[in-house]
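Write out this protein's structure.
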Amino acid sequence: MIYFSGLVVCLLVLTAEAYVESGSEAFCADAKQCLVYNVTCKTDDYEVRSYESVYVAATIVNASTLEEAQMIGYPRLLAYFNGSNDMGVSIDPVAPGLVIVPHNKEPEYFIQIALPAEYQQEPPLPTDNSVFVTYTPPTTFYVVGYHGKKTDQKERKTIESLSRDLDSAGASYIKEYHFSATYIKPGPARNMYNEVAFYVMDEPVCED
């Protein structure tokens, strides 16, 4: 396991009491529950968001590309949400699905989906050993979004652009990996909404 301890386990998360219903954000209208966040500030290029902690179902995937990792990891997690857990219950996943994408040559992708409010106190345990439930800390991110099907090329172009904008602004952030969020189940949907994010270090910079 390369990066997935301490700060890397953090993600786009919130307390159970802070969930919002479907439709609170246009890009989250297809979800029964969606993560909420506080916007600290924004520029023309990105915004700074803060999230609280929450239980998530997660899996780690060794893959050569983000697309490959999603094809392996999301079915594992969806099986857990569809009843492959010790309670045998079907659970509505909370949007977005999130992948922590390391920037190295032999990446391990950390893929996770938050549990809904009703399962935050007693999360069902996975029956698949490759899936686990973990509790994540509060986090602050530099975030930018884009529409369309997520591909490695589009992801790389977007995250490189965000990195240039943050470097130009003099922002301090973790560069060894980024966070990749998708607000509907990965697939060929043309209206898919995605986000990329870097973990904020020190005080966030948010000046045009």
